[in-house]
């Protein structure tokens, strides 16, 4: 019998990240960590084989903590990506179902609160918000404090796991609410999602630093992809943290790292004075 491999995720039980792990790696063992950086440290320390972390949400944008930690602290390879539909539920301890309209504090992950901003603004007046390390941590906290009239925003699994009652369903402000999770690994390709899952496509993610003070540098970078007809599905800038105005660009190309087109584009960028790091070339999947 082959030994089960360990997958780090943002815990505790029943977070959205755990549901991504269950979808991609149903036969492996999930190991819960309290923060995204701790998940990434666990790969480097060899405690787990891979980590699954959120990268981007359709309503709230990038998960900067993941991007920054990946770029500045703990480099790792992206080996797969999964897009998951996100449905947020408002839940309370069963003792408090009659007074949920008057909750005095709502607990959740900052991204989950932001995804429900319009609902919360319309429904609650002068309610406080408490940011937790994850939606699961919020649900757990609410279950452990029945005397306080508080609520959590989390998913249906969390309501079941922590014995909470959902009082308002699907409170995210936009129907099309999805989060992209990436699977990170220290070494390349020693574990892959089950072969019965079919990828929707392949992507390559690059981190590019432009040469300083060169007019039209970004235009030249984009044209290296454009004339090769390499479609870009995302371009995002993040501060280098070395001074105002210094940025990295993170670019997703809708193509696998082949032997000609992508290496040709990278060689052209390097000839322009850019520095290029390949963050990964990987299959992407959709859950449901
Ligand atoms: O708190 C969770 O359940 C998570 O898995 C984290 C996270 C995030 O970081 O964006 C993941 C998906 C949702 O967008 C909300 C929260």
From TrEMBL:
Q: Which reaction does it catalyse?
A: prephenate + H(+) = 3-phenylpyruvate + CO2 + H2O
Pathway given for this chain reads: Amino-acid biosynthesis; L-phenylalanine biosynthesis; phenylpyruvate from prephenate: step 1/1
Q: What InterPro entries does the record point to?
A: ACT-like_dom_sf, ACT_dom, Chor_mutase/pphenate_deHydtase, Preph_deHydtase, Preph_deHydtase_CS
**Pfam families named among the record's database cross-references:** ACT, PDT
* Domain Prephenate dehydratase, first and last residues per copy: 6-186
Tell me the ranges covered by the ACT domain, including all copies. Answer: 206-283
Q: What is its EC number?
A: 4.2.1.51
**Entry keyword annotation includes Transferase:** no
Q: Name one GO molecular function term.
A: prephenate dehydratase activity
Domain of life of the organism encoding this protein: Bacteria
Q: Under which main EC class is this enzyme filed?
A: lyase
Membrane-spanning intervals of the chain = none
Q: What keywords are annotated for this sequence in UniProt?
A: Amino-acid biosynthesis, Aromatic amino acid biosynthesis, Lyase, Phenylalanine biosynthesis
Q: Which NCBIfam families does this entry report, sorted A to Z?
A: PRK11898.1 (NF008865)
Q: From the Swiss-Prot or TrEMBL record, give the protein name.
A: Prephenate dehydratase
Primary gene name: pheA
């Amino acid at each position: 019998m082959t030994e089960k491999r360990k997958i780090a995720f943002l815990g505790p039980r029943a977070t959205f990240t755990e549901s991504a792990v269950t979808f991609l790696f149903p036969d492996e063992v999930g190991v819960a960590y309290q923060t995204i950086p701790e998940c990434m440290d666990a790969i480097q320390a060899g405690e787990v084989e891979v980590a699954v972390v959120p990268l981007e949400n359709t309503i709230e944008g990038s998960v900067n903590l993941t991007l920054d930690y990946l770029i500045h602290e703990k480099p790792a390879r992206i080996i797969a990506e999964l897009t998951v539909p996100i449905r947020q539920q408002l839940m309370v301890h069963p003792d408090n179902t009659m007074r949920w309209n008057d909750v005095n504090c709502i607990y959740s992950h900052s991204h989950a609160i932001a995804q429900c901003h319009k609902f919360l603004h319309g429904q609650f007046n002068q309610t406080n918000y408490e940011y937790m390390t994850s939606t699961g941590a919020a649900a757990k906290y609410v279950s452990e404090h029945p005397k306080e009239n508080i609520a959590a925003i989390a998913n249906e699994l969390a309501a079941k796991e922590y014995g909470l009652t959902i009082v308002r369903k699907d409170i995210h402000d936009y129907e099309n609410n999805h989060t992209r999770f990436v699977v990170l690994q220290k070494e390349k390709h020693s574990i892959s999602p089950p072969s019965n899952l079919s990828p929707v496509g392949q992507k390559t993610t690059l981190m590019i630093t432009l040469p300083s003070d060169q007019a039209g540098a970004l235009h030249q970078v984009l044209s290296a992809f454009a004339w090769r007809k390499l479609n870009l599905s995302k371009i995002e800038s993040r501060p280098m943290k070395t001074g105002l105005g210094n940025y990295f660009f993170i670019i997703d190309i809708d193509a696998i790292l082949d032997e000609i087109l992508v290496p040709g584009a990278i060689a052209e960028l390097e000839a322009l004075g850019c520095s290029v790091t390949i963050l990964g070339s990987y299959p992407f999947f959709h859950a449901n």
